[in-house]
Amino acid sequence: MPNLPKEQIDLYNRDGFIAPIDIYSREEAAELRQQLEGLEASHPESVTGRNRNNVHYVTTLFDKIAHNPDILDAVESLIGKGILVGGTTLFIKEPEQRGFISWHQDGRYIGLEPENWVTAWLALSDVTTENGCMYMWPGSHLEGAREHLDTYDEENLLTRGQTVQNVPENETIPIALKAGQLSLHQPWVVHGSGHNSSKSRRIGFAIQSYIGTNADSVYGKIFV
After folding, report:
1. In which domain, by residue range, is 107 found?
2. Of all helices (H) and strands (E), which one includes residue 77?
3. Cis amide prior to 95 (ω within 30 degrees)
4. Which of 2, 185, 194, 204 fits a 20 to 30 Å CA distance from 23?
5. Residue 89 CB burial class (10 angstroms; 0-12, 13-18, ≥19)
6. pLDDT tens digits, one per residue of 138-158
7. Residue 32 lies in a domain
């Protein structure tokens, strides 16, 4: 796949995200899902609970996805050459699961500077409004960091239920994806996702995030 065309880069800069980007065919995506569900059956501890974080460290399946050259080409269009995988998360919403992800900004908590990084989100199942797709607030990244309220809602899948208040939900856009498609979003764009009210799994793999080699963590450092 060639690097992203200027029109898509312009949309990313304007809205804070772009989607969908075709990466895998439906047949390839089905094979990846089959491999995941095989791992869940044979080695459930490797891809469940906390082990869904940085799952690319322990499975060749997700390491291969994170280093897919078509994804890297698209990312290169946004952050340039010299790309590192900063972290990954396997996001699965089971059928009729009440869990949701509140409105938030990735950049508010990850703490990387300069902001030369992007989150990639690959669908391994069809992702719809019914089964809990992400919603993005276009242009919300242009104002930088926003205050988040810690709600500790039991159904909120974020650690502290951290939530941006007063999001104009009528302005948000659903990011529906077919299995094998990718979305890319900017660190400060406000986004979230709802419940899975369907009878099928919603499976996504987030590279959170691809970072430039010049990006450095600014949290947890001691200055003397």
Report:
1. 6-213
2. helix 69-79
3. no
4. 194
5. middle
6. 999 999 989 999 999 888 888
7. yes
